[in-house]
Amino acid sequence: MALIPVFASLLFYGYSGVALAVFFVAGVSDGVDGFIARRFDQQSELGTILDPIADKLLMTTAFIILTLPGIFSSVDYLPIPFWVTAAVIGRDVLIVAVAAAINIMTGFSGFKPSWLGKLSTTVQILAVGLILIAAVFPSTQGFYLPYVYVTVSALAFLSGFHYIFFVASLMKEQE
Q1: What distance in Å separates the CA atoms of residue 26 and residue 20, rounded to the nearest whole number?
Q2: Are the C-beta atoms of 29 and 41 separated by less than 8 Å?
């Protein structure tokens, strides 16, 4: 979480290369932290809450800043189209709203991430890396970015609606 403002500031002020490095460090440290916690049975309730929040904050920050006009100069397919960012953030808002409504109405709190949600988040992380690579190395022309945008948006849409059915099956199991 501590690297999110650093990453955001670097990206906003045009230091895409350093922002890419910070993004990489944030991703690796998150992975190492999770591995150590699982390997040495050091998982905590706070960690299981903070880790996905940190991931969502990093992704939301990245997508918002990468959507802003004027962040990149002369790079094809950048900034990220607004509809991509809207799909990513909309998915998270949908999941939180559905979970809150279910919790309020039924008291159910056994929410877990779905495999499609995990895939969507992983693809979002890879997408931000690929987008930053296109920004740092404009000679690549970002030819792959339209495919990245469609993939991220489609997975966000599918995983958001899949989660509703996934939670319904979790609720049935708990009955």
Answers
A1: 10
A2: no
The residue extents of the domains of the chain are 3-174
| DSSP assignment string, 106-170 | H--------HHHHHHHHHHHHHHHHHHHHHH-GGGTTTTHHHHHHHHHHHHHHHHHHHHHHHHHH
What's the Cα-to-Cα distance from 28 to each of 22, 34, 35, 169, rounded to whole Å? 10, 10, 10, 33
Q: Is 160 helix (H, G, I), strand (E, B) or coil?
A: helix
pLDDT beyond 80 at 23: yes
Taken as a whole, the chain contains a residue count of 175
pLDDT digits 0-9 by tens, 113-149: 889 998 999 999 999 999 999 999 988 888 999 999 9
Q: What is the DSSP letter of 71?
A: S
Question: Model pTM?
Answer: 0.90
What gap in Å lies between CA 70 and CA 137, rounded to an integer?
Answer: 17
CATH 1.20.120 fits 3-174, yes or no: yes
pLDDT above 80 (res 164): yes
Find tokens 């059915």 and name the residue.
165
